[in-house]
């Protein structure tokens, strides 16, 4: 009786494993396609950093710091942070495809100054052709810090 019971348990466990394997095989289908771009080489990473630095200084050069200083004073306690963070998309020939504020400073007129500086700065130099984003675009997120920020109290 004991041998029969062990044989039945062994048979059931083999059948369960086989059934589970078959179910997994039926549900798997073809292996998923990998659309991830190959990793960037150190030289390419350096080019991306160089391009983002260029964007930051190029756009920063369009900012009227006297106006920023006046708005920071005007904002007083409404200023939540001393920076504005943007997300921009740039096409392969340097055209601005889209822009949006990722993180506001908390004072809309100051955000508007930074957005208008961004609009004045375009068109940009073309991004590196091996961009880590889709081939036709490059994402650049950067922060512009107000040099006229009020001193901490």
TrEMBL record:
SUPFAM superfamilies per UniProt: TolA/TonB C-terminal domain
Domain of life: Bacteria
Membrane protein topology class: Single-pass membrane protein
Keyword Signal: yes
A GO CC term attached to the entry: membrane
Cellular localisation: Membrane
InterPro entries, A to Z: TonB/TolA_C
Signal peptide positions (record): 1-20
Keyword Cell cycle applies: no
One Pfam family cited in the UniProt record for this chain: TonB_2
Keywords, ordered alphabetically: Membrane, Signal, Transmembrane, Transmembrane helix
Protein name as annotated: TonB family protein
